[in-house]
Amino acid sequence: PLRLRDRSIEPDTRSVEVRGEAVQLTAECAKAKCVQTIKTTDVHVAGISCRPFAPCGAQEGTASWEMSALGAWGGLMVKLEPKTIMVEQSHRFQVVILQSIFGSRYVWQVMILNGTDFGMKIRRKRFYAVGHHQEKVGEAICRMDNVIPLLYRDARYYYTYRDYMIAESMPEFEHEKHEELAWAIARPKSKAKGKTLDEVKTLHHPYDLALTQVETTNLAKYEADLPRGIACNIVQSFDKRPTYGTVDTMHTIVANMGLHFCTSSSVRRWFTTSELMVAQGIPIHRSFANPRGRHYTTTPYLMPANRKRIKVLHQIGNTMQIPVVGTVLFYLILFTQW
Question: For residue 316, which of 9, 49, 51, 121 sits 20 to 30 Å off, Cα-Cα?
Fold first, then answer.
């Protein structure tokens, strides 16, 4: 077993029949209906599954098969040998795993970065590693831990996580609030079951009524023990696994986050999918004004059509924070001796 700090991860003992080499670069593509070949690249960016190394994943026992996937990815990279590799993982991940996979082929630099380091109002402490192939590129011009801290940005007091709730200030996203409410009412265990959307919208706290009894109980416990104005995951039990932020910062968004509820007196509801995308730094609209009034033009990210809400949430929760991963990629490209 692979031992990590005070716990171990048992290998997957299920038998797998392998004919020929375990990792192949050429195979039949079911979608294109032709033989496709994977080619190497100058930069490979990898967000390996973090559940085997995250506390929640370890509790759920999801380590075995995902460790096998990590080995398959490593085998593919050993064959391709890209010039540089950038890896994002749980902050509990250890660089010794990459060193054991790639041996002496790559020289690794590691940093633990958080979205709050870059002025974001959402926590997400993650492991970032940059590996340079010793034979294909030269050493880094400057170390990563000497460059990236220069790009840190303070989160000013006038900016809170509630600024991510764009459905309150941008008319083009207001319809999402009603769509979320309609979805919640239609659930079999909703307290508003049997009522119409128009009836619920006229109530003082319509989003509270749309919750299930379990969600209502969890929300009440959060509000009883924590300051008003926090954002909390009301699907997670406050007694077993409390998940909440501060009065101005959100908790990490994860794939199974459920409903991220804002308990502010001015905005009392959960985040829409577009708002969670904004929190992760994903550009979803063309014009964005920061608190100082400066406008920026961005390229919108369009979600696949007709994707179910839960699938969208999983995709958002598994997304790297764009400003953070962009900074690491910026360093890799500019400070590598190509």
Answer: 9
Show the tokens assigned to 43. Answer: 């930069």
Q: How far apart are alpha carbons 321 and 302 in whole angstroms?
A: 17
Return the axis-axis angle of helices 95-102 and 63-80, rounded to nearest 10°.
50
For the purposes of burial, counting CB atoms within 10 Å of the CB of 335, is it exposed (0-12), middle (13-18) or buried (19 or more)?
A: middle
**d(C-alpha 242, C-alpha 60), whole Å:** 16
Mean pLDDT computed over every residue of the chain = 83
For residue 321 the two structure tokens come to: 């924070």
- Cα–Cα distance for residue pair 278/166, rounded to 1 Å: 8
For 249-278, the DSSP string reads -BPPP-TT---EEEE-SS-EEEPPHHHHHH
- What distance in Å separates the CA atoms of residue 121 and residue 163, rounded to the nearest whole number? 9
263 neighbors 223 (Cβ within 8 angstroms):
yes
Alpha carbon distance 53, 7 (integer Å): 10
> Residues 182-210: pLDDT tens digits?
999 999 999 998 899 999 999 889 999 99
Contacts of 88 (CB under 8 A, 6+ apart): 45, 46, 47, 48, 126, 127, 128, 320, 325, 328
What does the radius of gyration of the chain's CA atoms come to, in whole angstroms?
22
**pLDDT digit string, tens, across residues 283-293:** 776 555 555 55
In degrees and rounded to multiples of 5, residue 132 shows phi and psi of: -110, 130
269 is written with which tokens?
């509801």
- Of 221, 210, 316, whose CA–CA distance to 268 is shortest? 210
